[in-house]
Structure to design on (198 residues):
């Protein structure tokens, strides 16, 4: 039975590298994979999944209106699909996570999603929230904070390396630092701390 996997971590833990290694392993065995990446990440000028160690692969871009179930169904007409791999899965819309469950349950194709759970203020991304709720398998890819503890949070930095605590939830780039929750100082940046008590 095909299953939905969510591989999560803080920033810069090697999620894209792990995804690309998985895709390579399938291809090496003569199996067909479909790779997806958010359309908003256009830094390379073409839809590609990049890792910080220099690996990359072409991928299909998706936006909030993209229908994964329809896309995989269409791809199956041309032949078997052995795995679907989604990079930056935190940017999935809730409906798209539902579509990916149906890719597993109705089409019989395993889906591997890679992403982060929370933004630079510790707020959960919608895609990650539903992946955590619905995935068959939830796997942490671990990385280390500057303190030596496990990093679980993502601090955003400006051009001078200073911490940013205000702004849009989505800001594509490598200007992030993975921190432990203690170093992140969640109580100072989370909107939850500023909400009035009920």
């Amino acid at each position: 039975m095909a299953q939905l996997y969510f591989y999560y971590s803080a920033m810069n833990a090697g999620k894209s590298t792990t995804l690309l290694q998985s895709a390579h392993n399938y291809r090496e065995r003569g199996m067909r994979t479909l790779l997806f990446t958010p359309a908003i990440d256009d830094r390379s000028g073409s839809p590609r999944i990049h890792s910080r160690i220099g690996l990359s692969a072409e991928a299909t871009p998706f936006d909030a209106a993209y229908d994964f179930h329809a896309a995989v169904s269409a791809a199956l007409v041309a032949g078997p699909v052995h795995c679907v791999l989604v990079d930056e899965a935190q940017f999935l819309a809730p409906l798209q996570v539902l579509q990916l469950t149906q890719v597993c349950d109705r089409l019989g194709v395993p889906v591997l999603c890679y992403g982060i759970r929370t933004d630079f203020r510790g707020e959960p991304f919608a895609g990650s929230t539903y992946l955590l709720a619905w995935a068959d398998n939830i796997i942490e890819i671990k990385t280390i904070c500057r303190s030596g503890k496990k990093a679980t949070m993502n601090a955003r930095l400006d051009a001078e390396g200073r911490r940013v605590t205000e702004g849009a939830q989505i800001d594509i780039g490598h200007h992030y630092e993975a921190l432990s929750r203690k170093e992140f100082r969640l109580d100072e940046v989370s909107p939850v701390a500023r909400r009035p008590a009920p």
Notes: The mean pLDDT is 91.
